[in-house]
Amino acid sequence: MILQAHLHSLCLLMLYLATGYGQEGKFSGPLKPMTFSIYEGQEPSQIIFQFKANPPAVTFELTGETDNIFKIEREGLLYYTKALDRETRSTHNLQVAALDANGAIVEGPVPITIEVKDVNDNRPTFLQSKYEGSVRQNSRPGKPFLYVNATDLDDPATPNGQLSYQIVIQLPMINNVMYFQINNKTGGISLTREGMFRGALVGLSQSEKGSWVCPFQRCFLFPSPLLLIGSQELNPAKNPSYNLVISVKDMGGQSENSFSDTTSVDIIVTENIWKAPEPVEMVENSTDPHPIKITQVRWNDPGAQYSLVDKEKLPRFPFSIDQEGDIYVTQPLDREEKDAYVFYAVAKDEYGKPLSYPLEIHVKVQDINDNPPTCPSPVTVFEVQENERLGNSIGTLTAHDSDEENTANSLLNYRIVEQTPKLPMDGLFLIQTYAGMLQLAKQSLKKQDTPQYNLTIEVSDKDFKTLCFVQINVIDINDQIPIFEKSDYGNLTLAEDTNVGSTILTIQATDADEPFTGSSKILYHVIKGDSEGRLGVDTDPHTNTGYVIIKKPLDFETAAISNIVFKAENPEPLVFGVTYNASSFAKFTLFVTDVNEAPEFSQYVFQAKVSEDVAIGTKVGNVTAKDPEGLDISYSLRGDTRGWLKIDHVTGEIFSVAPLDREAGSPYRVQVVATEVGGSSLSSVSQFHLILTDVNDNPPRLAKDYMDLYFCHPLSAPGSLIFEATDDDQHLFRGPHFTFSIASESLQNDWQVSKINGTHARLSTRHTDFEEKEYVVSIRINDGGRPPLESTVSLTVTFCSCGEDGCFRPAGHQPGIPTVGMAVGILLTTLLVIGIILAVVFIRMKTDKGKDNVESAQASEVKPLRS
Ligand SMILES: *[C@@H]1O[C@H](CO)[C@@H](O)[C@H](O)[C@H]1NC(C)=O
Ligand SMILES: *[C@@H]1O[C@H](CO)[C@@H](O)[C@H](O)[C@H]1NC(C)=O
Ligand SMILES: *[C@@H]1O[C@H](CO)[C@@H](O)[C@H](O)[C@H]1NC(C)=O
Ligand SMILES: *[C@@H]1O[C@H](CO)[C@@H](O)[C@H](O)[C@H]1NC(C)=O
Ligand SMILES: *[C@@H]1O[C@H](CO)[C@@H](O)[C@H](O)[C@H]1NC(C)=O
Ligand SMILES: *[C@@H]1O[C@H](CO)[C@@H](O)[C@H](O)[C@H]1NC(C)=O
Ligand SMILES: *[C@@H]1O[C@H](CO)[C@@H](O)[C@H](O)[C@H]1NC(C)=O
Ligand SMILES: *[C@@H]1O[C@H](CO)[C@@H](O)[C@H](O)[C@H]1NC(C)=O
């Protein structure tokens, strides 16, 4: 035993030496509280730590939860002798004390904590080998109805103890559709959405409010868009039970090396009692005390909150539901107000979440006979002619009943109850019992008996009677024709500008039939001489006088003389054997006199379009006017401010007399005047608009005066600057498209120009070797128009010594001998320049100390030149 122990310590010592535990640091050190983590199940005899003794301590002692596994050598080597097991003890709380030679504690005890780290050495196990559960048909998908539960002894904080559930198989499986799903973390089993909804599309047709598309085959759209779906496919009648095999894996189900277990779940599908009730029929105008229970809905489990939803947003919604699911009508219904109701019953859980889809409740309102017949008007008037034959229809009385159509409640029955006067006898009329048509029953009527009969007619439905009144007027037969008082109204002369609406003539015919009936009323028609419909005749209903009125302007030029013929007619047809004869016609002759009218232009505005470069003398347009009296016309122009045009006095043709220019303004607007030749020289004015189309007639030019382009001298790097070109032509849609080039070959070694876009280009130096002077760079700009126009422009670029924010013109850039004044000026300028340079240098030295100035960066910008 002793030998073994020594051997053991020897081994340990060797290990200890081999692994470098000797050095102070991670694996050795003085006694102090420490924590170590060690994997469970590891090979035993592992060294944990080497404690170093401080005199007078010579040995160490270990106490606490050693479980006979942890040991300490006298020299302070802490180790363990058996594989650890986290599931037995996950933390060992040890104490180590240092002892002196006498065994007395001189240091500590200090706590030493050993945490046992987990390895996946335990299988997950289901708590039950078999589970049973039930689910209601149409339950909400995703709502767990059963939990399976497995445990794993491994550390749940590590993947080793993290379990993942999975359905391995569902039996039976129809069409490869999973009806069940499991939450891989909680083990909660619920219904799936997929494959549940194979039913008809219900509710979508009523969803005017929602414009979104139903993602499933059964959706309900609510005013506040709320999608409710339920499992339709699980049908206990088809298949009342299912079996699932469920696996659980540790390592979060992610590792190939995970352990697993399976269990079996039997599921019974129970019938859903959440079903729409049968449609309800409810008699209207019920006198029973309300509310009256009409139907009910029931959620599958107690405790649901029920409510009704009225999608029609009725002003009056007379239904309610109580917390049992019983549905009531709260007020008497009225079929004549609304004959059918459709609304929805909703069941929610205690948190207000819908438990399932809403149920449609249909209520049909049954008619009762609660509306009496109503007469079409207080008195219904008919006319009957004297000579009307027996049985002829006089008219039809149509009463109304609001009760349901085509039922006995609205079937009406007509009966004459009284005739006044009873002259020459009673019962002159009869009425068809159901149709209400009045007929002559006994004989033709005679006006001398009485001109009027009053009938009282009883209209009845099955319960109600209403009296309606009919007045029958006996009218004379139309056996007289209208006779004109004279057949010729003579000659009538009118000026052609006589106002529309004026009465120009009254005509009169008479009819001997009974006054104020359709037999004596006279309508006058113009039947000849007025094809344009310029005249009309209004009849005075009392006197039958006809007023001839101008309806449309008269026109001397088209109708100077008209022979107008009138016909007088009755609205009622003439009796058989009587016809209109010549006495019903009359005529007159209308003379229209001329009024001198101004010429009329054929258009209010004349437009013409020409290219702006048309030659002088080109015809650019014409205008036409006519004089209504046919007089000749002389044309002239007015407002030709630019003096560009002339008009041919006779033809109205317009010619250019000067170069036209679109850029001066287009269209060019002038007035044309047409004047009668002779007569009263009336004239009228119209507009002539000349639209000028563009011709490329403007060469490109620089967009502005580039007087102040400069580079700082000496140039430290090639620089560039940007310039812009323009021209005055019209550039439709895209703007101008200039091209740029250096005009002279000799400049091309020093300069290059590159196009940026249609208007802008960049002028760059090709090198840095420029003198301190002005360079004039000529650049060719082409506008690419039709025809292309090109011009050469000059950019003056100064190379100069740069100051703070600009450039000084180099001295002596002006050729020629200076005058005395100039010399003095130059002298003063030079002195000033020197002064400024000194000042600038001084300020620079003060402010810009250490900062390197980048000349080329400055040079690449266009800056104003200080002069
Ligand atoms: C699973 O079982 C464990 C141990 O019995 C328990 O603590 C846990 O709450 C259970 N989980 C569920 C979802 O029932
Ligand atoms: C567990 O389910 C979640 C979603 O519910 C999913 O994102 C995750 O990938 C699943 N894990 C496994 C291992 O299947
Ligand atoms: C109900 O019926 C009574 C007669 O039965 C009737 O007077 C009343 O107008 C009816 N009400 C409605 C709303 O139709
Ligand atoms: C018919 O009734 C009207 C009132 O509606 C009355 O003025 C008239 O005199 C009556 N006619 C006869 C012939 O009774
Ligand atoms: C009407 O005019 C025609 C033609 O001008 C003439 O012959 C006739 O005599 C005139 N009649 C009357 C009544 O003036
Ligand atoms: C037209 O008929 C009426 C009688 O209806 C008669 O008096 C008149 O003379 C007739 N006129 C002509 C022109 O025949
Ligand atoms: C004058 O203009 C009209 C349209 O206003 C045109 O129809 C006609 O042909 C033109 N006449 C001439 C001679 O150009
Ligand atoms: C052309 O380029 C210049 C400089 O880059 C810029 O200012 C201008 O807006 C551009 N013009 C067009 C039409 O892009």
SSE arrangement:
Elements: H1 2-18, E1 28-30, E2 34-39, E3 46-52, E4 57-64, E5 70-72, E6 77-80, E7 91-100, E8 105-117, E9 125-126, E10 130-136, E11 146-147, E12 150-151, E13 164-171, E14 180-182, E15 188-191, E16 241-249, E17 260-270, E18 280-283, E19 292-296, E20 305-309, E21 319-321, E22 326-329, E23 340-348, E24 359-366, E25 379-385, E26 393-396, E27 413-420, E28 429-431, E29 437-440, E30 452-460, E31 465-475, E32 483-484, E33 488-495, E34 503-510, E35 523-528, E36 535-539, E37 545-550, E38 561-569, E39 585-593, E40 600-601, E41 605-611, E42 619-622, E43 625-626, E44 633-638, E45 645-647, E46 653-656, E47 668-676, E48 683-693, E49 701-702, E50 709-712, E51 720-726, E52 739-742, E53 751-755, E54 760-765, E55 774-782, E56 790-800, H2 820-847, H3 855-859
Parallel strand pairs: 1-3, 2-8, 10-17, 18-24, 25-31, 33-39, 41-48, 50-56
Antiparallel strand pairs: 3-6, 4-7, 5-6, 7-8, 9-12, 11-15, 13-16, 14-15, 16-17, 19-22, 20-23, 21-22, 23-24, 26-29, 27-30, 28-29, 30-31, 32-34, 34-37, 35-38, 36-37, 38-39, 40-43, 42-46, 44-47, 45-46, 47-48, 49-51, 51-54, 52-55, 53-54, 55-56
The structure holds 2-acetamido-2-deoxy-beta-D-glucopyranose (8 copies).
Protein name: Cadherin-17
Signal peptide: 1-22
Membrane topology: Single-pass type I membrane protein
Q: Which terms would index this structure?
A:
867 residues; mainly beta; Immunoglobulin-like; 7 domains; four-stranded mixed sheet; 3 helices; 56 strands; 6% helix; flat; disordered N terminus; disordered C terminus; binds 2-acetamido-2-deoxy-beta-D-glucopyranose; Cadherin_CS; metal-binding; Cadherin-like_sf; calcium; transmembrane helix
